[in-house]
Amino acid sequence: MMRQFTRMASGHRIISYVDISHHLLAESEAMVALNVERERYAVMIEGTRDGLFDLDLAAGTVWYSSHAHEMLGLPDGALNGDPARVAERSHPDDAGLYDRALADASSREAPVAAGTRRLRHADGGWRWIASKARIIYAESGIPVRAVGSWTDVTAQMEAEVRLRASEERYERVIEATSEGIYDRDFTRGTVWFSKRAHEILGFADDSLNGSRDKILSLIWPADVEALDRILADAARRKAPNYSMVMRIRHADGSWRRIASWAGIVYPNFCSFD
Structure pTM? Predict the structure, then answer.
């Protein structure tokens, strides 16, 4: 607050002055509060495991936190300024992917844009980076800023790739074998049979999958009892596998003798003693 004082001095001379002490005090307190806020913000940035970015769409510039740079093995500040610096590190198959996601979200005035792309690390390898940004719009509806985070999901993506490859190999093995394959889940009480297993019994693919009751209704009653005894004995001994020959009714009504062999998977916490 500014205060003005006026006094009459000798000779009727007017002397005036302004008291600005309160104004300076308020300004000092505001600076202290601002510095505290900046320190708090800096601690939050350093404390998060994600990389942060601030894209100024109006100015065409971008800022990345130190953690974002670390994800790509780069010195702090190397990516700041021109957004093309990151675009140049994009995998050829992912080029422009995130920019298109951002443009699509902006065209709909969506509040958030997200996407995953591969970026080249300083060591020459590729890192999968998931980006998520909050888009800020002007009153006119034009996007002016996008503030968000980077998360390194390389381990997760590579695990998914290995899993898909493993599943594809498994499917090829199943398709190549002349034997029928099955997988029984003791916990859920369900069973799955391969296409070849269905063909052996003359049934359409997938028609026997699901509840174990479906296949049990086709097995000779005495063989069902024998199967249960063999399973119980194997579980009691924690045997790694079991086998038996059973009679199963074919779709044409005839009986087929089917030799069955199975490996048993035991949970670590389970005991059959």
Answer: 0.54
